[in-house]
Amino acid sequence: MLHAAYLMALFPLAGFVVLVLAGRRLGDPWAGWVGTAAVSASFVVACLSLGSLWGEPATARHFVENYYTWIAVGHLQVHVGVLVDPLSMTMCMFVTGVSALIHLYSIGYMRRDSEFSKFFIYMNLFVFSMVVLVLSDNLLVTFVGWEGVGVCSYFLIAYWHERPTAASAGKKAFVYNRIGDAGFLIAMFLIFSKLKTLDMVTIFAHRASLGPDATTAAVLLLLLAATGKSAQIPLFNWLPDAMEGPTPVSALIHAATMVTAGVYLLCRMNPLLANSPDAMWVIAVIGGVTAFVAATIATSQQDIKKVLAFSTVSQIGYMTLAAGTGAYVAAIFLMVAHAFYKALLFLGAGSVIHGLHDEQDIKRMGGLARVLPWTYATFLVAWLAIAGIPPLSGFWAKGDVLDNAFRKSPALWALGVLTAVLTAYYMTRLFVVTFRGEARWATQRGGSHEPPHECPWVMRLPLVVLAVLAFAGGILGLPWVHRAGLGSWLGPVFGPALYDAREGAGLQVVLAVVDALAAVIGLGVAAWAWRAEVDRPTLEPQFLQRVWYWDDAYDALVGRPGQALARVASVVVESRIIDGAVNGVAEAVRASAAGVRRLQTGYVRNYALGITLGLAAVVAFVVSRVWWS
Amino acid sequence: MLAAAAIHVPAIRYLAIMPVIVLLGGAILLLAFQSLLRGPMRLRMATVATVAISLAAFGLAWWQWADVEAHGPYTTIAHAVVTDGFSVLVTVLVSAVMALSAMVAEGYLAREGIEGGELHVLALVSASGAVLMAQANDLVIVFLGLEILSIALYVLSAYNHRRAESGEAGLKYFVLGGFSTAIFVYGIALTYGATGTTNLTQLADFLSRNVLIHDGLLLAGMALLLVGFAFKVAAVPFHMWTPDVYQGAPSPITGFMAAVAKAGGFAAFLRVFVSSFGVLRADWRPIIYVLAIVTLVVGAALAVVQRDIKRMLAYSSVNHAGFVLLGLQAASAVGVSSALYYLFAYGFMVVGSSAVVTVIGRHGDRDHDIAAYRGLARRQPLLALCFAVLLLAQAGVPFTTGFLAKLQVVVASVDGRSVPLAVVAMASAALAAFFYLRVTVLMYGPGPDAAPAPVGPGDPPLAVARRTRLNAALLLELAPVAVADQPQRAALAERVPVPALAAVAVGICVLVTVVLGVFPAPLVDFAHRATLLFVP
User: Fold this and answer.
1) How confident is the model at residue B484 (pLDDT cuts 50, 70, 90)?
2) 3 state DSSP class of B369
3) Cα–Cα dist A339/A76, whole Å
4) What is the ipTM of this complex?
5) Which residues of B touch A615 (CB under 8 A)?
6) A289/A317 Cα distance (integer angstroms)
7) A65 SS3 class
8) Cα–Cα distance for residue pair A293/A241, rounded to 1 Å
9) Of B233, B215, B225, B218, the residue nearest B187 (C-alpha)
10) What is the value of pTM for the model shown?
11) Which of A324, A406, A441, B319 could staple B299 via S-S, CB 3.0–4.6 A?
């Protein structure tokens, strides 16, 4: 089955082609079912491939297969091929699995959208690109997938492009990602100029000849790429705006899969990271700080999706922190667990928004527990999971990250624990304000609001499946069976590069208790603070609501000077210099041509004279050659 | 005495001259057959016969190619005729262009109500002359081919007796052609006087064995030959006949002339100068250098200010000749193959373009003002797309043969250490891109019935800036078009009928241009292996 790994990419691509050709004719809901079937087939292939890989001995779980040579110019030999190992298969499993669930959910959510089939076209193209990104054995093809998911993200954020906010959010995401992509490109150039290859296996084999400085530079450039794609400081601002897209998009692309691509890239390139301890420190610090900053902002947002968006940024910050400490297994563990509970949170939020007819402000919700029982129950599981309450998946995954951070740097660990308190706090706030208390939606808008309705089964089924996974996902990496879970499965991929802090049993228990306490404290404080009131301005300072004035700073430092420059370019450079040059050349050509054209009299005698004069000149030249020799 | 003098019949390899025999013999048979008919020959019959004859020559050329590949190039008929990769490629091109032009001409003749297939006969004769020029290994044979090519073309230019311009074009071409032929023959005479031979191989031999570096007689002969060729390929300042003749000639003949006369003329030009006068390259390369620069610049600059599409194509063909001169100026095997590639690519582009021009010309072959192309994309999107592709290919846009053609001659020129020339060529290509784009913009702009959009006073500065630039791009020449009178506008807004065979011909030209542009390997390889018999 491993030789058929390419089918994982091919099925969504086939779905994309079918929908492009016949999507409109299939219409609502059949186009959705085609898209879902394509991605589900991809998931089945992923399961079978995983089974085959599992059957191999631990040291032999590494397959590279080239399908064809895409570019062959001198040293640049780019093959389109796959690298199948436990890391890429783990990614494929949850990417295709969560995608299939979210596709199913979207059939219900996108119901009666005017361009129903277009949505699934982009979604299938996204899954194809994501699988290419994950499976590629070559940086350039990875980059193709990287750009592919980026462009799908752009299309889907701006899906409702008639809304100015959606259109500008799409542009914002695009621009921020371009900055990161430039880092990826330069990193590729750097690696190619030193090693003459972009093939990952070869790069890893010859990483020593890259030299320490170039390695650090390459890793930092890849980090820049990761901060763009995974919404980390300094390029995290686009993700909250990206919530303008349909909610299933937020769940799939901006929570579960695409935004983790940056962390995946860092994990994939782990042999390079291992050669540059300095760069790893930078990664760890960026991850820790992002986790904390985003968590503080999440405490003060009013839009249900924005809270979740900042929460995503914060959680990816944890993953980056783990990658920076070398605890790649912990990073992947959290990535998988996060995919489950964050996708569930977004889908639950989508269900709420759907039920309340596009209401996103949590201050206008409340008391939804009774009217949306399925959503309520599943959201409850996700809330406890992300808050880090044992024994749900979030507790184990976050605990793994924090244990490793403790050994690397107690300061980063402390920041992480503080973030954990904040995480429990903002999630509890969100949960309490949305589902508990009085039903504020009933009194809004003059009371004409029709009662919320629970979603159809195509939307409920993914909620239930994800709730089970979010609850039980922790068994992938329970600390006391570390050698049998995700650790032993992924361990060989990272080899000696893997930092694996195995504390003594006593310390481990202490750390686990601290994690649990942090969760309980945050949860308790929020439950108490938000039990009755929904308007508490002291707990939602402007500073946090305005995202630490981060956007304003970018606007002042980059945006406005950029606009000024553009204005100069438009008024002075464009209209005077460039147009002046163009018009000048045109005028010169016209004038000189008019002169020459006068020679074109139409009289044969003049033409013959021209030939004669030309002949005379040629003969004069050869005569001069004879003369002067 | 006469009885005693045995006539020595040279050995003949018939395969070598088979394409010429087929083209010329086919023409004679076609003419003879027509004379046997009571009325004029059915046009479709004549066309089918012509295409069949051309395809036969085409097939024979490939047979020759296999032969050359297997046994190497050879000369025959007392070394007067040569068959090498070079001649085969030109034969392939000429016979293909012949078939395409016949297809275009059919619709033209039917539309103009000209009966009989004499145009096809003359074109076949002309094509045989071009093939003979490519195969000539003797200055006398070159002359023979040149005359067979030219005399038929003089008549073809004047073929549409209902158009005064056509007759004028034929006469001008004839007078000036005669003048330049005289110069050419005088060049042969002087060369013979200096070296004692007219055979190209022997000429090269003689020059490499005897040091005649600055023999005045030889150099004068060479100069006269150069002028003769330069006239034929329309290099400035020997180009002045081109716009008048291209404009006046029947439109299908314009394309035929541009492709075939240039191919034949340059084939002989390249062979005589690179092969035979190769030793003297220090003497002729500077002349070609200057000639190429003047040709490139004048061709491009004058094309920009034309309003008549056929005159524009004429000046553009002058500009293209400048590019081929780059390959000649390099005076190397690479230069020859790049020039050949250029001729091949250009042949298909110009035949396709003139086919579109023929169609758009409407009854009377009159609508050649570029205003006729306004909004063509709305009325006939496929036709407009084809024309746009052919024009952009001529401009040298990537993924067309036109791009590779320009690239290769420029590379050859740089290899030949003529960097300034290459720079001028590229600058002229930029200038030339302008008039191809102008027609393209017109086609994809609003139709003739649309009033020009007024520039509102409230427009933001950027929009105004863009409009100013557009105005510059359309070069004011278009301003009168906007105020064309109403009935004329209405006539131009109608769809033009596209004859089926012309459509097929345009389609083939576009396909060749694009497919060989995207998958360049076969043709590039062909041109690289199509070497001259001898390059010093």
Assistant:
1) very low
2) strand
3) 36
4) 0.86
5) 183, 223-224, 227
6) 7
7) strand
8) 17
9) B225
10) 0.67
11) B319
